[in-house]
Amino acid sequence: MDVKKVDMFVMSNGKFFESSDMNIIREKLLALDDSQWSSLSVMQFKDPTTSLIVSILAGSLGVDRFMIGDTGLGVGKLLTCGGLGIWAIVDWFLIQKATRKKNMAKIQQLLY
Asked: Signal peptide: which range, if any (predicted)?
C-alpha cells in the first residue's frame, strides 16, 4: 500500500490503538494490497475516551461493556449493579485499554 495512505491512517487513527501496536499496524498496512484500502478506510473504531465517559456515567449498568461488544460482561455488570459499584470503579481504569484491544482485534481481521 502507498506510504502516504498508511501514514495518514496511522496519524488519524492513532488514538484508537495502543502505541505499542502502531508499528505492527503500520508494517502490516504497508504489506497490504491497494485494493483493500477502501475496506480499511470505512472501518469504524470505538473511541476510548467516549468509552471512559460512558463508563463514568453509566458503568454500573454495564453500558460501557455493551458499547465495546463485551455482552457477557455487560450483562454481569447489569445484574450485579456494577459489582456493587466496585466493578464499575475498576472499569474506569480498564475500559480504555479494553476498547483499544477490541479495535486491534477488529483491524486484525483485515490485516491477517
From this structure: none
Q: How far apart are the first and last CA of the chain?
A: 15
Per residue in 20-73, pLDDT (tens digit) is 999 999 999 998 888 888 888 889 999 999 999 999 999 999 999 999 999 999
Residues contacting residue 88 through CB under 8 Å, at least 6 positions apart:
55, 59, 60, 77, 82
Q: Determine the Cα–Cα distance for residues 64 and 95; give it in Å rounded to an integer.
A: 8
* Cα–Cα–Cα angle for 90, 76, 50, rounded to 5 degrees: 50
The 3 state secondary structure assigned to the chain is CCHHHHHHHHHHHHHHCCHHHHHHHHHHHHHCCHHHHHHHHCCCCCCHHHHHHHHHHHHHHCHHHHHHCCHHHHHHHHHCHHHHCHHHHHHHHHHHHHHHHHHHHHHHHHHC
Q: At what angle do helices 22-31 and 3-13 cross, to 10 degrees?
A: 150
